[in-house]
């Protein structure tokens, strides 16, 4: 939406408020997805991965996380170039342990 304003900035303030609410919602869902993936990883450590259910459930949670990462990028909360750089750095850190 594009609006032209002279003195009244009410619409701009409302749009900004809506954008902030959307970002807060995305971040909250992202945090929940992280927590759910953490729980599933913990279950795999505790109970093993002998069953299809355990491995499949982790895949579902990781899929949710990947979706949230895409949405965070689409809404300008993360930068893909920075993300790729940090991914490479983390991989090098783990491989070189």
Describe this structure in words.
By secondary structure, this protein is an all-alpha fold. The mean pLDDT is 87. Helix 1 packs antiparallel against helix 2 (52-74). It has one domain (10-95). It is flat, with a radius of gyration of 19 Å. The N and C termini lie far apart (51 Å). 79% of the residues lie in helices and 0% in strands.
Brief write-up:
This protein is mostly helical and about 100 residues long. It is about 80% helix and about 0% strand. The longest helix has about 40 residues, at about 10-45.
Could you give the topology of this structure?
Elements: H1 10-47, H2 52-74, H3 80-95
- Mean residue pLDDT: 87
Structural class, from helix and strand content?
mainly alpha
The radius of gyration over CA amounts to: 19 Å
How many domains? The number is 1
How much beta, percentage-wise? under 5%
Keywords, separated by commas or semicolons:
3 helices, flat, 97 residues, single chain, mainly alpha
């Amino acid at each position: 939406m594009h609006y032209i304003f002279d003195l009244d900035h009410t619409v701009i303030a409302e749009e900004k408020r809506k954008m902030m609410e959307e970002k807060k919602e995305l971040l909250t869902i992202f945090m929940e997805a992280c927590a759910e993936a953490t729980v599933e990883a913990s279950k795999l450590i505790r109970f093993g991965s002998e069953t299809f259910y355990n491995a499949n459930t982790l895949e579902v949670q990781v899929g949710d996380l990947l979706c949230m990462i895409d949405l965070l990028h689409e809404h300008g909360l993360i930068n893909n170039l920075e993300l790729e750089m940090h991914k490479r750095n983390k991989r090098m850190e783990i491989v070189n342990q």
